[in-house]
What we know:
heterodimer, A: about 120 residues, alpha/beta, Rossmann fold, 5 helices, B: alpha+beta, 6-stranded antiparallel sheet, rod-shaped
Amino acid sequence: MSEKILIVDDEPSNRKILVQELTHKGFAVDTAGGGSEALAKIESAPPDLVILDYMMPDLSGLEVLKALRKRGNDTPVIMITAYGSVERAVEAMKVGAYDFITRPFDPDHIELVIRKALERQD
Amino acid sequence: MNLTFIRGQTRNFLLWIFSARRRQRLVRNYFFVSAILIAGGLISAGLLEIYFRYKEGLEQIGFIQQDAANSAALGIERFIQDIATTMKAVTKSPDIRASQKRTDYEFELKRLFFLAPAITEALVLDTEGVIQARVSRFRAVSPLLKRDFSQSAAFKASSQGKSYFGKVYFRDNDPYLTVAVPIEPFPGEFAGVLQAEASLSDILDLVSAVKLGKAGYGYVVASSGELVAHPRSRLLLQRQNVGELTQVKAAFQSNPGVFRPKAIMTQNIDGQTVFSSYALIPTLDWAVFIERPAEEAYEPIYASLLRTSILLLIGLGVALLATLFVRRRVVRPLETLRKGVELIRKGDLSTRLDIKTGDEIEILADEFNQMAEHLNEAYASLERKVAERTQELTAANDKLAEASKLKSRFLANVNHELRTPLSSIIGYARLLRRETEKQISPVQVENLEDLLRNAERLLALIDSLLDFARIEAGKVELKLEAVEIDQLIREAAASLEPMLNANSVRIVQDISPNIPPLNTDREKLREVILNLLGNAVKFTDRGDIKISAYQQNGDFRLAVADTGIGIEQADMNRIFEEFDRGKLTSAAGYRGTGLGLAIVKRLVNLLGGSIVVESVAGKGSTFTVTLPVSQHEAASI
């Protein structure tokens, strides 16, 4: 049974690339186009892992992460940040993100990060 | 008193005052100087006064005592001479000369008792020294006893025609003197001797009764040292010999020719210190002494000393008051002035002085107040101007800060806006490559690879630009930590390994042992090493790339040497500027953003170090980075 991954990104093309890459790697993938939608989907159909874009119009990735943790949800989260914003990534990891990756990502690298996060969860 | 000693002490005192501290308070200086001057004057005047009083006092004592001694001596002399004269007058009586009748003699002799009350006994000797007649005031004498006096000193002297004065002797505790005169009816005709015993009690009592001052006294001494008269009769009865006393010796040894009235200080018979004066009675070979205890004699001198001391104290008190007055009038206003100046110096420009002395100091204070007023105004206008300029500057600064913020936001936006589509391009290109694997022709695969490569290059360019802009904008903060340099170099070399042309190029590491950990920013230094190594890899087709690390002159040095194409001499100065890749700008086959070395140089500067390059075109280049071992003053750009 393949692990279920929720990809949260406001940019459709980004979502599309990730969906194709991760599906190819053998994960079950779901998507959300914004923070609120993501929180709703995590509630209704809990994923094994969430990939969160930091910069989103309605709720930022950080806010989504905080909301999750506040609810006691400890689903592993991988944050996607812009290049050069290490500070934000560090902030996210303090709040509870497992790791962060910068765009554009190497498909092999992201698979490795996801596997490690899931392993730890197990 | 020892004047040399006082002078020495005074000099020491002055030296102490003036060598102690140069910057003494005016008050202190003034007080001490005036006190010294006034007190010095008063004290020296007082000491001189005392000295002269002392001298004069001694002289006066000498004069007074000498007078007393002289008059006493004169009195005694006259008394004795009077007796002799009276006796001589009696010898002129025809009865004594001619009468052979004893009763007539006795009558004349008894007459002598009336004429000279001091005479108690008288006798007449004939030319052979045999008594012719004899009478006594107090006792019965045998008129018929013809004693022979021819061998007596009195008879011998008188028979030579001289008056004779014998030695003092005591009878019934009264001093007596034998006086003898020749009986000469005519000059040269010796008819016998008239001899009498004269009592000296009365006249000597006069001397003994002398009172000089409270305790002054007189006494008479014969040349043999025997006391003749003394207020204490017990001494007389004891036949006290005072010949050993200094003053007695001096009196009888002195030469009358050089005699000067004075009092000598010596000890009296009781060992008491006295001032002693004397006068000689030549006829009798006696001396009269007048003595006064030194204590009493000094009394007026002590009184004078006391008076002078009191005057001195009063003078000093007045001097002190004068100093205090001057202090109030001069020094205190000066002190107020000084405090005012100090307040101004400390920045209190509102300081104003209120000095109403009505003299130059008040004028000075007024000038001071005006100066302070001007200063205050000038300062206020200066402050106003500064405030205005500051406001202008703040406004300009705000604008700059606003501009900077805008720039940062712009950069962030550029980053996001450029990268988002670029990421998509790269992502889709990768997807396409994977999905079309083995389904498209090699030319199409090649085209796809070119697309991907160029997109990645564009991304790298954007990343570098962003880095550079951030450094330029001072957005980069240093995180200092202890960095093991050998580990850092190994990691960097390993990460570049895949880029190497494995057959012809290799990276050689030459890291000297015992390099202490550097206190620097790990990530920045890693970027520098990666950039330099990356450059070397990029431009080297075959040969070794050598990276060495060592310590020199207390600095840490990192050198990357390649055997690549090298740099033209003309380009050497420009390679660290942005977008300048030397002759490579147009050269095909070498990829790069043109920002690598510019970023390296700025990062190295940020880490407090410097970078230089040596190169020979066609042979290779060596970049050497020098960093301080400990990065204390991490300057952010």
